[in-house]
Amino acid sequence: MAGQIIKKVKALFQWGKILLPLNQLRYFPPRFVIRDPIAEGVKKAFKMDFETAVIVYNIKNLQELSDQLGETEYVRFISLMKKAFQQVIAQEVNDDLIALHDYYSDGLALFIRVNHNIHSVSDIDSTMKKILRESEKMMFPELGQIKPKFETGYMFIQRKHYSIQESIYKAHQQAVAMAEKRVKTEFNEMVYSISKIISQKDIHILAQPIITLATGEVRAWEMLTRGPKGTTLENPLQLFSVARQTGMLYNLEMIVFEKILKQIIATGCKQEIFINFTPITLGNQRFVRDIKETLQRHDEISPKQMIFEITERDSIEGMDHFIYNIKVLRTLGFRIAIDDTGAGYASLNSISEILPDIIKIDRAVIQDIDKNTVKESLLKGLLLVAKETGSIVVAEGIESKEEESVLARNKVDLAQGYLYARPGVLNRSLEIAMD
Predict the structure, then answer these.
(1) The pLDDT value given to residue 249
(2) How far lies 295's CA from each of 291, 358, 433, in Å?
(3) 205-242 pLDDT per residue, tens
(4) Degrees (nearest 5) of the Cα angle 17, 21, 26?
(5) pLDDT at position 59 over 80
(6) Tell me, what's the pLDDT at 33?
(7) What pairing do the DSSP bridges indicate for beta strands 218-226 and 204-212?
(8) Which sign, positive or negative, has the C-alpha torsion 423, 120, 262, 355?
(9) Fewer CB atoms near the end CB (10 Å): N or C, the chain?
(10) Measuring CA to CA, which residue among 189, 268, 197, 251 is closest to residue 228?
(11) What does DSSP say about strands 150-156 and 51-59: parallel, antiparallel, or unpaired?
């Protein structure tokens, strides 16, 4: 009986619902039409210079649910689940939705676009968890004691592949593998790949200058990570998402730190260096000890030269060692910067908790600020916050002289963006060579 129910439900799923847009449910036959809207949405996102990702919500106890529920109730549950996810996604994802679909799996697949200038791996992770949490709240009161057990995973869709459809399929399979943590699947392959990168320290470091706006001189460099050249993990979003989901993020970030120290020595750089760390790594109990040990191996470098830039938007609440580690790092001479300020509540909340030495204003605020008086007002508000906390301000993502002129008249301290230089390899002349 249970087997028949599963077959009937999966047959129903093959005529799955896809949301484009959210308020219009449409049915498409499998294979011939279903994948086309997803592929077209991904293509459109790529043309607009977005990244794209697939988030998988698989039901771990699907067989158990089918045994406990009758056929009618099981179909009702599927409908309830989709409705709950649709409503939450409408609130949380909004314009970044590409599609929501069953995609031939034991659950749902959410396809979204990702602005790599604004979003981060933590954003994808937190969005994934929030959608599930809010959807479960809507579903559970109606389900009573019978509750689905979800497992989640995500992966970015690669631009460079045989075809868009093939890229989508591969990313979906990898996201499912991440969710299920299956043995002898893509998950183990990705564990192997990221382990190999860490063991061989097979990453390369790029740099982008940070300019003193008043003089045009290079004040500092932000160091940026890339994975092995020519591989899918060269893209930093892909690299750090795999590392995070396989439990190797801390190891990767510590390898990055050591690589940066070696590059400082190799180039003889005496200017300030911005080094990115996620809150998860900064809050690790081993972090301060490992930083000290790494510095002892490179004792010609002073902590006063380095700024630890807190990237991404993980909540620092509940991270027992985070604030403590920040205090210890400051006693050692390191300074602290907060990235993406102005991109959301989390960064503003972090300012009040951390009182950073440097505030980096997000590209979302800077873009077209010369044409938008509201953005300039927001900039002025952030500058007041920085003055209150005694923080230096860096404006990120400057791409035009017009944007620069608005920053200059508001007396912004430092600037960074394509107007000055794209990320490249830092050489001994302290100049950028394109990678």
Answers:
(1) 93
(2) 6, 22, 27
(3) 999 999 999 999 999 999 999 999 988 889 898 899 88
(4) 30
(5) yes
(6) 39
(7) antiparallel
(8) positive
(9) N
(10) 197
(11) antiparallel
Residues in CB range of 323: below 8 A, 6 or more apart: 316, 353, 354
Residue type, 356: P
Report the alpha-carbon angle 127-326-225, nearest 5.
60
245's tokens: 């989901």
- DSSP 8-state class, residue 319: -
Are 37 and 99 a contacting pair, CB within 8 Å?
yes
Q: Which of 129, 100, 136 is nearest to 17 (CA)?
A: 100
Q: What is the pLDDT of residues 281-332, one digit of tens each?
A: 999 999 999 999 999 999 999 999 999 999 865 666 556 789 899 999 999 9
Task: Report which residue type is found at 138.
Answer: M
Q: What is the CA radius of gyration of the chain?
A: 24
What is the spatial distance between Cα 327 and Cα 87, in angstroms, rounded to a whole number?
A: 42
Q: For residue 94, give the DSSP letter.
A: G
* Residue 287: both structure tokens together: 């972090």
The mean per-residue pLDDT over the stretch 388-392 comes to 93
CA distances from 240 to 84, 277, 338, 347, 366 (A): 30, 11, 19, 20, 26
Q: What is the mean pLDDT of the chain?
A: 82
The two structure tokens encoding residue 251: 């190891």
Closest CA to 120 of 367, 365, 339: 339
Residue 5 reports pLDDT greater than 60: no
Asked whether the bond before 21 is cis by omega within 30 degrees of 0, the reply is yes
The residue length of the chain stands at 435
Q: What is the Cα–Cα distance from 250 to 198, expressed in whole angstroms?
A: 10
Of the ranges 11-15, 176-180, 220-224, 427-431, which is most confident?
220-224
Question: Domains in the chain and their CATH numbers?
Answer: 2-182 (3.30.70.270), 191-433 (3.20.20.450)
Enter the pTM of the model. Answer: 0.70
Cite the beta strand spans of 244-305 per DSSP E.
Answer: 272-277
187 touches 56 (CB < 8 A): no
